[in-house]
Amino acid sequence: xxxxxxxxxxxxxxxxxxxxxxxxxxxxxxxxxxxxxxxxxxxxxxxxxxxxxxxxxxxxxxxxxxxxxxxxxxxxxxxxxxxxxxxxxxxxxxxxxxxxxxxxxxxxxxxxxxxxxxxxxxxxxxxxxxxxxxxxxxxx
Length: 140
Known about the structure:
The chain is an alpha/beta fold.
């Protein structure tokens, strides 16, 4: 299993307290990779609070931060347009679409769990993905 994080996933797994540390331990035991699309960093995973940011940096040291290439960008755009056509108004954010597209691309060869605090938008995006049957969500 591969785990793909969005901003809420970073917040929900940053080892700030025992509950988050336990959640992270379980995921690391079952995941072959923890992935964070670089575009997620644009949403601001750091708060300027030293204690919080220390733990967020520790988590980021343990994940694979991936570039967003043209194929992923186009796939994210297609997912956003499909979500709009399905009646979602406003459309999911571009960052959520990138997370879903990254997860979908990785689901070609493995099961993928998206870790998020935004279950609604990402659940819809994941359901519209090509490899939807291999995608699942963990809402933290």
